[in-house]
Design goal:
alpha+beta, Alpha-D-Glucose-1,6-Bisphosphate, Chain A, domain 4, 9-stranded antiparallel beta sheet, 5 helices, 13 strands, 21% helix, 33% strand
């Protein structure tokens, strides 16, 4: 019996390892680089679920994420043209009040909808500390910044430019507040993590790469929203690239 249990444990470990390695998630900072879609409004967006990633998943160590049980992972890889420096992109990402203008195609409502019905910058981690948008200089300081947004809930986030120069931005975001439903912690601080790599390629072409990882009790019930997830990711890419976010066609229609 012990031999059988030991063999089963080895087999289970092997299957878990194979399941985790079946998803090839590349990041620009280490290992083989990702492939980017051609410059334009249609990035490559891929969605993975926890059973595809395996338990305690994490990207390459250079991303700085601790292994965790990710329920939904979105990977966006696109490119766009920009002749100016990274400051222009940082200023756009720091314009929190304009996040309300980001539109995505809602498959369930068959219409363009605001990604964040309400959004504003904060002078600290308290959602009551409303202030004006962040400047490019504030973004580039590398200090932790905070903002508030509503999208499937009301959350405060921490935003930080982890690395930057004229040709590169590495940006992290993470929710610092959560919410409860029926006294259950449906969404806890740290359950939403985002990581952006935005860097100049050849000439005026910039490459955009984003990881969005979600955890929480509600995520297993969101598999039916795959198209809307993909269209949200496309909208964020278009906004960062300075493109109209509601440019037809939507990336996912079904």
């Amino acid at each position: 019996m012990r031999a059988f249990v030991a063999a089963a444990a080895v087999l289970l470990g092997s299957l878990t390892s194979q399941a985790a390695s079946a998803v090839d998630v590349r990041v620009p900072c280490g290992g083989e680089p990702p492939t980017y879609a051609a410059p334009g409004p249609m990035p490559d967006v891929r969605l993975y679920y926890g059973d595809e990633l395996g338990a305690n998943w994490a990207p390459h160590a250079c991303a700085g994420w601790e292994p965790s049980n990710v329920a939904i992972l979105l990977v966006t890889a696109g490119s766009f043209r920009l002749s100016g420096p990274a400051d222009e992109i940082a200023e756009r990402l720091g314009a929190i009040s304009r996040y309300h203008d980001i539109l995505y195609w809602s498959h369930t409502r068959a219409s363009w909808r605001p990604l964040m019905p309400e959004s504003y910058a904060l002078s600290g981690p308290d959602s009551k500390l409303k202030r004006g948008d962040f400047t490019a200089q504030e973004m580039m300081s590398g200090a932790p910044l905070h903002f508030y947004q509503t999208a499937a809930g009301k959350f405060a986030y921490r935003l930080q430019v982890r690395e930057h120069d004229a040709n590169r931005l590495v940006v992290t975001m993470e929710n610092i507040t959560g919410f409860q439903m029926l006294f259950l912690p449906v969404f806890k601080p740290g359950d939403a993590k985002l990581l952006y790599f935005i860097e100049r390629g050849e000439g005026d072409v910039w490459n955009f790469y984003q990881l969005t990882a979600l955890k929480g009790l509600f995520t297993p019930f969101m598999r039916s929203g795959q198209s809307s997830f993909i269209n949200r990711a496309a909208a964020i890419f278009r906004y960062a690239a300075g493109m109209p976010t509601d440019a037809d066609p939507p990336l996912a229609l079904e």
